């Protein structure tokens, strides 16, 4: 076995995390804004009022800027699987490649094709046909996310595949199991609807900016109302699906849920507190300065009052026999690779479900080879491997909490905004309008924290329970990794700067600034029914 | 004839929708919830805008 350089693995992880986080700054807005455009255009088609067409076209322009730059940042990531994660691609490519290929062939092409029609088809298509195109763009962008998240769910909860000792890789066996993986379902809806929240905050914040300056008041009032209602329902949906994902992690990824909750010891139902804040210490395996709310954790995670949640110390203990069994699996697999004897295959099959834990132990084996562990040192290797089954608790714990605290803030902001908009008391609530404006980047941050929770919490695995992360990377040199990392940082920073420049520029220009109402704060309110004739 | 074709088209859409609801509702309840939920979110936000039009027509000089 080739020796693994841990620095190359760390740099590969850092590079992927960085490119994914950069890319994910653009994705949520695309997912949500397309359906907001569809909502605005639906009102335009139903009522025939020009102002809704103006809304769809103006917000569509901002969507276009985000879409163009967002696509560019996503393409590199697909290549990274091959360049930086070749062992992973070999092991799991059969499973992972299928949804990625479908995403490229179906959803991405569908989205890209109809985006062109959406932008250039206003004067060439009937109103109904253009509305259908806008819905297809929305569906295409969200279907893109669906296939990516199906692939990601396969890494978190591998279903629809089995390990083949002949090919030494996971073989794809059930498309239905892949698509209907419970983790894929919940994660897709959670992520997609988080995009709706991001888009709603974006539209609401920019509309608040116009209202504060007394510009485009009719346009801003309608955009604000639609965004506030869009956002409040979406926030409720995001929180609901977050709860579903927590329940799934409790059942399938106990190390992730224990790290999320900073739970070092098995819980004591129903009294166990939900830790609001603490400083988890990964080295000492304990929390400092805990602040908790009693009686909340058990019903929150288990949806019961009597089921315990296994703590990280107990999970380490439970992993001991699996690591020992996994060492036997890897040793039998190695022998089978040479002998192809039925006896070795039978021995491997008996321990197959623990193979990943055996691979996890290779880091502590002499020469990174578990077959070279002397019999009297197996216990030492098992003990050394046990803490490795846990993710970074500090990162997982706090990324989750920041996401949750932000989502509660969105709930409050959307609820108050929707109420004041429905009561038509927005313009006297200048503080609220300022808060809406300043909150524009927060949903993007919340989705980034969500991603960090999901992916950092999955560690130390790329394929949960089967393939450790440190065995998944390619064997690049350090210079290659550092050079490509600097390149990505520079390139993606340029993309972000371009996006921000264009967004600020066009948001400040406002909607159709030649034909909308003048920039007069005291302009008389004109009914939308009287604003313009029906569009032709 | 056009009406008949339109009716047939709508019937096909209805059957496909029902099959989709039965299959996806059973196999992938959260996918189904996403479809229904997204439609609901769009309709409610659209209704909010139309309600604002109505409010504006009743009191054209009112606050936003």
What would your notes on this structure say?
The complex is a heterodimer of chains A (536) and B (64). Chain A has 19 helices and 6 strands. Chain A has 536 residues and is mainly alpha-helical. Chain A has 2 domains: 6-255 and 390-530, no CATH class; 267-309, no CATH class. In chain A, a hairpin with a 4-residue loop joins strand 1 (161-164) and strand 2 (169-172). In chain A, 48% of the residues are buried. Chain B is mainly alpha-helical. Chain B has one domain. Helix content of chain B is 88%, strand content 0%. Chain B has helices spanning 2-27, 29-58. In chain B, helix 1 (2-27) packs across helix 2 (29-58). The radius of gyration of chain B is 19 Å and the shape is flat. Chain B starts with a helix and ends in a 6-residue tail after the last helix. Chain A binds chain B through residues 35-36, 38-40, 42-43, 46-47, 49, 52, 176, 179-180, 182, 185-186, 188-189, 192-193, 196, 211, 217-218, 220-222, 225-230, 233-234, 237, 241, 244, 418, 421-422, 424-428, 524-530, and chain B through 27-31, 33-34, 37-38, 40-42, 44-53, 55-57, 60-64.
Write down the secondary-structure element order of chain B: HH
Count of runs of 4 or more consecutive helical residues of chain A:
19
Strand residues, percent of chain A? 5-15%
Give the % helix of chain A. 55-70%
Low-confidence stretches of chain A: 514-536
Most strands sheet of chain B:
none
Average pLDDT score of chain A: 89
Strand order of the largest sheet of chain A: 1-2
List the helices and strands and how they pair.
The complex is a heterodimer of chains A (536) and B (64).
Chain A (H helix, E strand, L loop, with lengths): L5 H18 L3 H21 L2 H34 L2 H35 L6 H30 L4 E4 L4 E4 L2 H5 L2 H32 L3 H36 L1 H7 L13 E8 L4 E8 L3 H6 L9 H28 L2 H10 L3 H6 L17 H8 L7 H30 L7 H9 L3 H17 L2 E3 L3 E2 L9 H32 L18 H4 L5
Chain B lengths: L1 H26 L1 H30 L6
Helix pairs in contact in B: 1-2
């Amino acid at each position: 076995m080739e020796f693994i350089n841990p620095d190359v693995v760390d740099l590969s992880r850092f590079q992927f995390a960085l490119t994914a986080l950069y890319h994910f700054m653009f994705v949520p807005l695309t997912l949500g804004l397309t359906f907001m455009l569809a909502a605005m255009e639906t009102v335009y088609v139903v009522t025939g009022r020009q102002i809704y067409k103006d809304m769809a076209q103006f917000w569509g322009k901002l969507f276009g800027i985000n879409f163009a730059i967002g696509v560019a940042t996503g393409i590199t990531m697909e290549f990274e699987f091959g360049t930086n994660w070749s062992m992973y691609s070999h092991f799991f490519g059969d499973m992972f490649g299928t949804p990625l290929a479908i995403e490229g062939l179906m959803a991405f092409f569908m989205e890209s094709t109809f985006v062109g029609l959406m932008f250039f088809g206003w004067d060439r298509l009937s109103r109904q046909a253009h509305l259908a195109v806008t819905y297809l763009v929305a569906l295409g962008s969200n279907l893109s996310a669906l296939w990516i998240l199906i692939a990601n769910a396969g890494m978190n909860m591998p279903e629809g595949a089995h390990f083949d000792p002949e090919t030494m890789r996971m073989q794809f066996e059930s498309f239905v199991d892949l698509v209907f993986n419970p983790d894929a379902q919940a994660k897709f809806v959670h992520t997609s609807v988080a995009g709706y929240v991001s888009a709603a905050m974006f539209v609401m914040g920019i509309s608040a900016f116009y209202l504060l300056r007394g510009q485009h008041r009719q346009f801003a009032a309608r955009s604000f109302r639609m965004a506030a209602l869009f956002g409040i329902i979406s926030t409720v949906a995001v929180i609901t699906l977050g709860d579903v994902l927590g329940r799934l992690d409790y059942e399938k990824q106990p190390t992730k849920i224990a790290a999320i909750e900073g739970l070092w010891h098995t819980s004591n139902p129903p009294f166990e507190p939900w830790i609001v804040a603490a400083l988890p210490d990964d080295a000492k395996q304990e929390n400092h300065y805990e602040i908790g709310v009693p009686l909340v954790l058990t019903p929150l995670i288990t949806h019961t009052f009597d089921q315990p949640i296994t703590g990280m110390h107990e999970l380490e203990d439970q992993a001991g026999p699996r690591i020992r069994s996994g060492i036997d699996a890897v040793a039998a697999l190695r022998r089978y690779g040479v002998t192809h004897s039925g006896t070795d295959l039978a021995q491997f099959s008996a321990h197959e479900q623990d193979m990943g834990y055996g691979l996890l132990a290779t880091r502590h084996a002499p020469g990174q080879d578990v077959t070279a562990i002397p019999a009297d040192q197996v216990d030492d290797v098992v003990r050394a491997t046990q803490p490795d089954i846990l993710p970074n608790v500090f990162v997982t714990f706090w990324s989750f909490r920041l996401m949750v605290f932000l989502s509660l803030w969105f709930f409050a902001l959307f609820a108050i905004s929707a109420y004041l908009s429905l009561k038509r008391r927005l313009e006297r609530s200048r503080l609220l309008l300022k808060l809406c404006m300043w909150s524009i980047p927060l949903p993007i941050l919340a989705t980034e924290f969500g991603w960090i929770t999901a992916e950092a919490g999955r560690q130390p695995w790329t394929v949960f329970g089967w393939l450790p992360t440190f065995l998944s990377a390619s064997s690049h040199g350090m210079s290659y990794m550092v050079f490509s990392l600097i390149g990505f940082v520079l390139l993606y920073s340029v993309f972000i700067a371009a996006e921000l420049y264009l967004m600020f520029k066009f948001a400040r220009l406002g909607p159709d600034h030649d034909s909308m109402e003048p920039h007069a704060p005291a302009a008389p309110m004109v009914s939308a029914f009287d604003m313009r004739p029906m569009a032709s | 004839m056009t009406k008949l074709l339109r009716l047939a088209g709508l019937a096909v859409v209805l059957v496909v929708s029902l099959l989709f609801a039965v299959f996806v509702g059973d196999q992938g309840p959260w996918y189904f919830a996403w479809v229904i939920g997204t439609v609901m979110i769009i309709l409610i936000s659209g209704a909010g805008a139309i309600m604002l039009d109505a409010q504006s027509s009743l009191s054209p000089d009112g606050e936003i």
